[in-house]
């Protein structure tokens, strides 16, 4: 697989209060070629973020000193670097707040190393490739942003303007979780956040057009109770 | 309850005497014969003395009456600022009870115990403020003139001709720990009056000629001295009892006085109180309710008399009997009464004659060994009011008489016309008939008069020789007397039948009311049902709205009204409710506590130690509350209290049972959790140690295999922990639903991903119609519920079974079914598979904790739905989850 190893110069900051977690993350990430810094609480994490300027931050949601949302807010005051939130099942709704506040992705503990590495790669690639590409290709799907056309398996498929906008929004952020609130605000405008039934209807319509089996989607993936993600690779 | 009880050597009473000591404040009364005798001065001097000893004394209210020496002394005692209030356009200063209670001095000075407060005060009378202070543990110094004593007002009026408006129940003075007589000779007092030390000169002159007239003062002084002497005597008895001095008791003297609306009743009550006090006896005020309906005025007066008796320390007993005398004797025997007090009314001869079977005579005959005291009862107090009332009842009676006369006149005319055709004796029969008819509608007196007058008129107009009272023939004389007697007997018999009929009807009505209520009550379930019934019952029979407050778990009164209430919560009124709750007393309208509240608050208790709530009833503005209805209200409150208490108790039992059950579960859980935890842990530890200890000697293949084993074991542990957490969240009720519009096929898809990620490699067929509506559910929880159902099928259906999941729209919401073609459930299993920790027999070890379906069912129920299990006709198990939730069509993707 391509991109199995990192470029070698990318740095990751782990902010987590559990030593055991930090240790296995460090070993796993370093053996995949990343340079790793550690911080045991929010304060240390924020100063490490300033000092070391990491390319990516792994942020534990439940830190003893500062809340996750607060850390993210302070980070975002000066730094646009990607943040992946590490959470547990019990704090599902905090993670939505964090995603709304600008976190790039999340992982629920316990997770496997493979999953984590895949997310890190996707997020970092998105950072590198940011910029307007006129044509987007993914598996059998091809979107021409300049012409506003979509084709599946080489055949043009008709999209309504709203369906197209929704697909474009997701496709522009491959691998990134977009929360319902973010999508609703972007596509339908503010004030419509609670009318998620529209979103469901449009997602179902898009899946019928682009997925092989709309009941088991492989491109437009549901993040339960959070939002949607455009499959990364 | 009066302290008169204390005369009995009863351990409870002794206990109360002891309790009176430390908890409650002491009451010290500076008692005098009239204004100006120096009570306030004496009080202040005493206060000054204890103040100098370093005791915290605060003046709550001092009335200096502009006397310089008093004012100078008052200035040396710290005071609580008075509360200013507007009353009828005047600014009036009142004692600030709340400030005083908050300040909590050791001793409070409160002048003029008999003072009447302004309507916006907590209590109508100052002595009630003082009782609050005492209950709060604050000792009180206060002043009082003898003429204000309730039991003495009548005597005072007789002596001085002045009706005292501000009166004080004697029972309050019974609570006094020290009564200090402030005595001064009448001459000295008059001298002080003349010197302008009591009233301003002009008022002083008037006063000197009236109230302060030497004879009056001497009489008042005697009363004051005598009263103090009586009190001293009682204190001595208290003292002896506390010291276990045995003394012959006035062996259980018990007095009974009947209370009626009659204006004479009041003086009887006072007399009984005085006698009871002197005898050291208990006394009972008895109201015998008869079938006859009381007029509104009578009812009010009866109420007044009953509250007078209560305030004088009587025990109030209400009984029902058609015959007052019988009722009195019955209660007297039941309660071991030794003396019945009856009034000797100043009735005219006429009434005495008509009621030859006088109640007093019957009382004496039926009393057996009970003493009867017959007292000359004087009509007392508020004379103008009495007259107005008399008049109003007279008008009604005159209406009866007028009707009788009118009927008589018509009959006489008709008789005169018909006489030539029918003869005088037929006229007599017609008249007799009319007497009977009259008896059906008119009052007894009117019927009697009708009978008498009709006899005379018949004689005059119809018996020859006509137009004289002279009767010619013997036959007619006999006829005349026969007519007279028959008319009288018929009239009174009919009237009696009518009154019995009325009584029976009234009783039947009351019975019906009670029967209805009881029936409704039996069918009512729980607090809510009972409260609803009582509230609607009160609404119907009293035309009143009701609010019910219940006790909270922490023991305080919950300010949120019970949902069955028909009266809105009112912060100010709630204060009154709380008072009633804390003190276990009825408060608010119609009572002495906060009588200006809009509603009447009745505490709910079956057992006085456990007050479970308060019921507030707001009557129409012009309502009068009779004893009868008050009793009914209290009965209702009692019923409600029983239901509430029963429910509380049931809750406690339930809690205890849950605790026991959870204890049992805990042991089962511990056993299976230990097993379920240890197996994967053993696998992890074993595999990892094998890898690390073997070092490089192990082949890559076996290393990977062992690590894969470790990972599986870890996944199993994760599932286990997740299930346990879900279970506890589900049971604690902390599992909040985050509902949102969701696509059922999306939920199924995600669930299948999860199942596959969990290592179930099984082809699961999905059938979900395209037009299945969006549902308002919690995505994660529903997915988890489906996971439990699918996991169950995957584990129990066998390796080669086909599994199918399908969704369908229902009339309301959706249903999801999971089917397989495995062995299906065995008999009896379908009802148990949703139980906690239930594991199917056939699958011994690998089934986990048996929580999956339990959690699935919990989630379905959170959504208001169900899960059922059964077997398919063609074989295999089927689980159906229904989610009766809100839906929206999943189509119409048109541009908005």
Written description of the protein model:
The complex is a heterodimer of chains A (233) and B (896). In chain A, 40% of the residues lie in helices and 21% in strands. With 233 residues, chain A is of the alpha/beta class. In chain A, the strands form three sheets. A five-stranded parallel beta sheet of chain A has the order 2-1-3-4-5, with helices on both faces. Chain A has a four-stranded antiparallel beta sheet with strand order 6-7-8-9, covered by helices on one side. In chain A, a hairpin with a 2-residue loop joins strand 8 and strand 9 (155-157). In chain A, helix 6 packs across helix 8. Chain A is globular. Residues 1-5 of chain A have low confidence and may be disordered. Chain B is an alpha/beta fold and 896 residues long. In chain B, the strands form six sheets. Chain B has a five-stranded parallel beta sheet, sandwiched between helices. In chain B, helix 16 (383-422) runs parallel beside helix 18 (444-461), helix 17 packs parallel to helix 19 (474-523) and helix 22 (627-694) packs antiparallel against helix 23. Chain B starts with 10 loop residues before the first helix and ends in an 8-residue tail after the last strand. The A-B interface holds A 89-90, 92-93, 110, 112, 160-163, 180, 196-205, 214-217, 222, 224-225 and B 711, 714, 718, 722, 725, 738, 740-743, 745-750, 752-753, 766, 768, 774, 778-780, 783, 888, 890-896.
